[in-house]
Prior knowledge:
This protein is of the alpha/beta class. The chain has helices spanning about 20-30, 50-60, 85-90, 100-105, 125-130, 165-175, 190-200, 235-245, 260-270, 305-315, 335-340, 370-380, 395, 400-410, and strands at about 5, 15, 40, 65, 70-75, 80-85, 105-110, 135-140, 145, 155-160, 180-185, 205-210, 215, 225-230, 250-255, 275, 280-285, 295, 320-325, 345-350, 350-355, 365, 385-390, 410-415. The longest helix has 13 residues, at about 235-245. The strands form 6 sheets. Strands 22-23-1-24 form a 4-stranded mixed sheet, with helices on one face. A 4-stranded mixed sheet has the order 2-15-17-16. The protein has 2 domains: about 5-20 and about 230-415, Alpha-beta prism (UDP-n-acetylglucosamine1-carboxyvinyl-transferase, Chain); about 20-230, UDP-n-acetylglucosamine1-carboxyvinyl-transferase, Chain, CATH 3.65.10. Mean pLDDT is about 95; it is low at about 115-120. Helices cover about 30% and strands about 25% of the residues. The chain contains 14 helices and 24 strands.
Amino acid sequence: MQKLEVFGAKKLKGQVKISGSKNASLPILASTLLSRKKIFLNNLPKVKDIETMLILLESLGSKIKKNKNKIIIDNSKQKKTFASYNLVKTMRAGILVLGPLLAKFGKAKVSSPGGCSIGVRPIDIHLRALQKLGVKIKISQGYVIASAPDGLVGSKIHFSKVSVGATENLIIASCLAKGTTTLSNCAIEPEIQDLIKFLKSMGCNIKWISKRKLKIIGIKEVGGGKYSVMFDRIEAGTYLVAAAITHGNLKIYNIVPEIIKTEINILRKIGANVKVKKNLIHIIGNKKIRKVNIKTAPYPGFPTDLQAQIMVLLCKANKKSLIIEDIFENRFMHAAELNRMGAKISIKGNKALVNGNTNFAPAELMATDLRASVSLILAALCAKGKSIINRIYHLDRGYESIEKKLKKVGAKIRRLN
């Protein structure tokens, strides 16, 4: 099993190009199932979750040609409606094929999803909403077996809580539903906006009618086309934190700074010097890191996917900071490993009290999920000596060439087999 070896206490300096967004690419890839025409996608990240989604699409009958980070998808002969556990178990986004398969064929059998063990993350919100479109659902042996013999029919749907996955699934499904669908209490993450832009480029009729309310008028056939996926805002945030924690000097490019205003403002409060240009952020870390209290929230709030990374930075702050995790219930598992490196973090329910002034010590560490993996790298980067990070397969699900990018800006890091 592969590991990462990290030698810390070096300032990061240089430029980092941010890859395409994993969390935008996955629903876009799932939504290509709606079309029977050729679709050309650009700026897909080279990460494990994208590979898994492409294999899942191929198992459903999609023909896929790859060329670097560009792919061509042809669904003209795609007819299968069964998504097996073997493919969906490692990736929660596998459930997103349920909506397009139901919209296109009126039936689907999809395994309940897997992914990181950061909370229950039930799919009941997806299923209740699909039922309002006329879908009949039963759960058997870990599979969702769904059918809509008369096709999907537009309806008014109010999500009981803001859910990114449910919003994505219902947007995709509603594109081929008969009549008009309104979705309210929608998630408004940038990745959802990117999905909508993609679907509209293929002829779908989708319109925001208020901040969290969408109107979708069903069409008979979805076209093809070309599309370039947005940048990965979580990867961008991770490198911003890396610069801040190592007192480094990084230029982060291939991004849209407006999308990550919340994260930039937090880093400024903490003490980093952040300058913003059109598609670039220049960050210089400050030796004096100030405390800040953070609560994760749906967009435009502070993202749960950056909570582990910011926790590491707050370990170096001048005073105690409080982090409230309001999205997932098991997302403090990295805290125990950080404490083994000398941090003083106490957890009570969904609150983490982070004592500052930590001098991280090198250690052998175990990653528990995708974002926890990268938080351990950040801690290791400012620990004097060698750290080993095990179970980095989590990391490969969401970060493209992370050790290569870090090496390029001065980190001493390598992958061990």
